[in-house]
Amino acid sequence: MGDTSTRERRSEAGDIDMETRLAMYRSIVEIRTFEKRAYDLFLQNLVKGTSHLSLGMEAIAAGFGTAMRADDYTFCTYRGHAHTLARGVPMTPVMAELLGREGGLMAGKGGSMHLTSVEHGVMGSYAIVGAHLPIAVGAAWSAQARGSGQVAVCFFGDGATNIGAFHEALNLGAVWRLPVVFVCENNLYMEYTPIRSVTAVPNPAADRASAYGLEPIIVDGNDPDAVYEVAVRTIDRARSGQGPSLIEAVTYRHGGHSRADPGKYRPAEEIQSWMGRDPVPLYRARLSELGVADATLQDIDVEALRKVDEATEAAKASPPPPVDLVETDVWSDGSSTWRN
């Protein structure tokens, strides 16, 4: 991490209330349990298409999801299960969408890479790298123009920092002082390539912040408390009219880029080191140190598994979407009849 960056690490002040901390623990456990089940279902050939999991990266979604207002906007990448769940979307329609069932968020038409729930502020998971950054800027401009007080939070991978849309979005957001927070989930690899091998600066997001007049911020993306604190600070800043922020959350995915990738290109010692920084057991241990009873944490673990089990069975029971759905949601009138 570069010496010029503001570093947000573990919270030592203890100023996060326990209700918030338990909410974040519940979120990371539910995401972890859901993602492990999604992996199992993929191996059973029940998940349609590929999937990109957030195993090891749950703290970022949990920290921001807990800090955001109900009407704020989330924009995320194809690795979007975690962010969707963190905004309160029920598990069953998310699981059903992964399985390509009619009971899914988009009736099974979108699948794992396109999760969307406008009702919960989840404005889409985007499969094209960097494509959603200018869209998040547009949503922030809309909020500014309407005076709604809403903030758009845009999550993207480290590889997107070398895409033109990243720089265009940062520049326009800064020029117009828009209420948008850009969050780079730096898991060190852009698909199969180490980000350091194709980027001129050590910190692909934070080291570029000053070019747009922004504070360079690096946060431990495996620490829910640190993520939550920087989320509150930057979201409040955006909401008060002070403009955007750019955050680089350093983390690590436990598996490959997608379920089709065994991840063999990563050094064994690197994997072992990062596994020792797994956010779920580390945060559980912290809560124990802060006096939370083990029974309380165990109840959260058990409830998360129950919810995932119920969502799995309900998703499996949902039928495939009818063929005539293929012509819906393709034009403003919901069909292809506009051509005639």
What is the structure about, briefly put?
This protein is an alpha/beta fold and 340 residues long. The protein is built from ten helices and nine strands.
Characterization of this structure:
There is one protein chain. The chain is 40% helix and 12% strand. The protein has a single domain (10-314), classed as Rossmann fold (3-Layer(aba) Sandwich), CATH 3.40.50. A seven-stranded parallel beta sheet has the order 1-8-9-5-4-2-3, sandwiched between helices. The protein is globular, with a radius of gyration of 20 Å. It has ten helices and nine strands. Helix 1 (18-43) runs antiparallel to helix 9 (279-289) and helix 2 (58-67) crosses helix 7. It has 340 residues and is α/β, with parallel strands linked by helices.
Give the fraction of residues assigned to helices.
40-55%
CA-based gyration radius: 20 Å
Low-confidence stretches: 1-13
The CATH class is identified as: Alpha Beta
What fold name goes in the CATH topology slot? Rossmann fold
State the end-to-end distance. 58 Å
Structural class call reads alpha/beta
Quaternary structure type: single chain
Q: Looking across the biggest beta sheet, what order are the strands in?
A: 1-8-9-5-4-2-3
- Shape, principal axes of CA atoms: globular
Instruction: Summarize the main sheet.
Output: 7 strands, parallel
Find the CATH superfamily: Thiamin diphosphate (ThDP)-binding fold, Pyr/PP domains
Could you say how many structural domains there are in total?
A: 1
Number of beta-strand segments: 9
Second CATH tier, the architecture: 3-Layer(aba) Sandwich
Average per-residue pLDDT, rounded, comes to: 92
Structure annotation, total helices: 10
Order of helices and strands: EHHEHHEHEHEEEEHEHHH
Strand percent estimate: 5-15%
